[in-house]
Amino acid sequence: MLLFRKTKSLQKFVAVHSQIHNHFNSERHLVSRETYKQRRSAALAEWRAIAA
C-alpha cells in the first residue's frame, strides 16, 4: 500500500485485482486434483481469450 499515493489509484487496483483473483481462485483443498486441473485449465483458457 505504500506504493499508492492516492486512494483512488489503490481502489482501482484492488477492483481489478479482486476480479482476477476471483476468476482463478478455486479453493484447491475442497476438490480433487483432476477437478482442480480442469477448472484451472478452463480459467486460463478463458483468461487468454479475454486478454487476446
Outline of the structure:
This protein has 52 residues and is mainly alpha-helical.
Report on this model:
This is Transposase. With 52 residues, the chain is an all-alpha fold. It is built from 2 helices and no strands. The mean pLDDT is 81.
Topology at a glance:
Blueprint: H1 7-24, H2 33-51
Radius of gyration (Å): 15 Å
Straight-line distance between termini? 30 Å
Unreliable stretches, pLDDT < 50, 5 or more residues? none
Principal-axis shape? elongated
Q: What helical percentage do the residues reach?
A: over 70%
By helix and strand content, what is the structural category?
Answer: mainly alpha
Number of strands: 0
How much of the sequence lies in strands comes to under 5%
Largest sheet: none
- Mean of pLDDT: 81
SSE ordering: HH
Please give the count of helices: 2
Features:
52 residues; mainly alpha; 71% helix; elongated; Transposase
